[in-house]
Design brief:
Number of strands: 8
Largest sheet: 4 strands, antiparallel
Mean pLDDT: 77
Low-confidence stretches: 291-302
Strand order of the largest sheet: 1-2-3-4
Distance between the termini: 130 Å
Order of helices and strands: HHHHHEHHHEEEHEHHHEEEHH
Radius of gyration: 40 Å
Strand content: 15-25%
Number of helices: 14
Length: about 300
């Protein structure tokens, strides 16, 4: 090996084109060309990163973007799934409450006129008449003009559109939120006992005792306590107990009538005027210590 500086160009060229230099240059060129041709360096690095991927922390901008993308997709999939489920539940509802609760805010569902008619007929008569006149619905249904029904949330209430085959509105109905809540309470109390409703706790009386107390009120005040006796008469079975709520809402107090029909029990909820119900409760509390033999029966009151 010559360690001194070349004295002229000839010596520079001789040293530059020496065998070992040419071999080194050819080797470097070969490595470079093979990398361009086969990408072996990237593949080697990629294979190494794959083997160590589980041990490396998930940090950095790329990881964060990936996490957000995955979470966004999962959230979107869940939203779509939930909406599809609620739409199916609403269309397959058998009660008015089920259908109303499964309609999303500012969204709506379309059901056939036949489906809506069946749900309408499940409502108590007095409630159904507040929603729509049965004669008007009968006219639209019988002449075939009413084909489908569109229901949508309007704030806390509900709007209902009776449509013909061309989606022209034949009748528009609006149900306020307080009526929906009342229907919900009726549906919730269809089966079970009074003990299952906390609002009647410690204020449950036998039917005999209740109707005996009711008969003590003036005749003109009876409907202020039991507003819809016809509904109770239309129910199969017989009333065994009556519960009185301790909460007054807008001048009314809720009463629960537990009806026994064979082996099944259910509760019908009605509302009485606050002043009349309090008068009845005062009588019940006064007579609490007296034996039931002195009370009139339900049949005597009727």
């Amino acid at each position: 090996m010559e360690w001194y500086e070349p004295r002229d160009f000839k010596e520079w060229a001789k040293r530059l084109f020496a065998i070992r230099h040419l071999v080194l240059i050819l080797f470097i060129l070969g490595v470079f060309i093979s990398e361009l041709r086969f990408d072996w360096f990237e593949q080697t690095v990629g294979s190494y990163l794959v083997t160590t991927n589980s041990k490396r922390p998930e940090s950095g901008a790329i990881w964060e973007i990936g996490h957000r993308t995955i979470m966004a997709r999962q959230t979107l999939d869940q939203i779509v799934t939930d909406r599809q489920f609620l739409q199916r539940e609403a269309r397959g509802a058998t009660t008015f409450t089920q259908m109303a609760l499964n309609i999303l805010p500012n969204k709506g569902i379309m059901v056939s006129s036949e489906r809506f008619k069946k749900i309408y007929l499940t409502l108590p008569q007095t409630i159904a008449h507040k929603i729509a006149s049965p004669f008007e619905m009968l006219r639209l249904f019988s002449d075939g003009s009413w084909v489908r029904t569109y229901l949508e949330k309007a704030g806390d209430g509900l709007k209902i559109y009776l449509l013909n085959a061309n989606n022209r509105v034949l009748k528009e109905l609006e149900i306020p939120s307080d009526l929906i809540q009342y229907i919900k309470r009726i549906d919730m109390a269809l089966t079970g006992k009074l003990e299952e409703l906390p609002s009647f706790e410690n204020r449950i009386y036998s039917a005999e005792r209740f109707f005996a107390a009711l008969s003590s009120l003036p005749q003109e005040d009876l409907r202020s306590v039991v507003s819809q006796p016809e509904m109770l008469l239309s129910m199969p079975g017989h009333i065994v107990r009556v519960g009185i709520s301790d909460e007054a809402v807008s001048g009314f107090i809720e009463l629960g009538f537990e009806i026994e029909d064979g082996t099944q029990r259910k509760v019908i909820l009605l509302q009485g005027r606050e002043w009349a119900v309090w008068a009845l409760r005062s009588y019940l509390e006064e007579k609490e210590g007296e034996p039931n033999t002195n009370l009139k029966s339900q049949n005597d009151w009727m």
